[in-house]
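=== RUN LOG ===
request id: a7f3
mode: sequence -> structure
chains: 1
length: 173
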Amino acid sequence: MRLSTFTILLLGFALALPLQAHHIKQSTAKEMPVTTSSPKARELFQRALIDYENLYLERANIGWRAAVQADPNFALAYVFIAYNSTDPAEAHTAQEKAKLLAPKASPGERLLIQWMLVALDFLAIIRALVQADRTLDDVSRPDPRLASRQVGEKNLLCVTLFAGETEIPLSGG
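=== RESULT ===
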């Protein structure tokens, strides 16, 4: 039940963000315009985008990585790497690089980069909440030998989380 609430929040958030773009003229271009100094990087990016749309996700990552090798200042490719990478370190590095390079991109690209960075932050919050929910579920499965202690730890964990504490005290034994 809680996950469906998060899904609804995520959907509402995703639908509300494009309202910020009402002042930008729509393009008549057949391909998405991208700010890069390298035609090779542009072609690699476009091919990776098609792979992503066809759910060839790792192939898309390979293409975006090649695009940023061809043009290390390609902000949009970095944000797509951050959005799609399964490696947290790579995703974080790409996210930081996209933030740094975004001001050099076109207004439309900056809007997309901003949206994707906000979505990444939102997804990180959702992941943390899901992990906290799993932790609470794990603690709530009492071991018959230690039932009262585990229930007490669950209550302490709930109080700690709702009080906004950053460190969660759990007994070690």
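=== NOTES ===
The chain has one domain: 35-163.
The mean pLDDT is 79.
=== END ===
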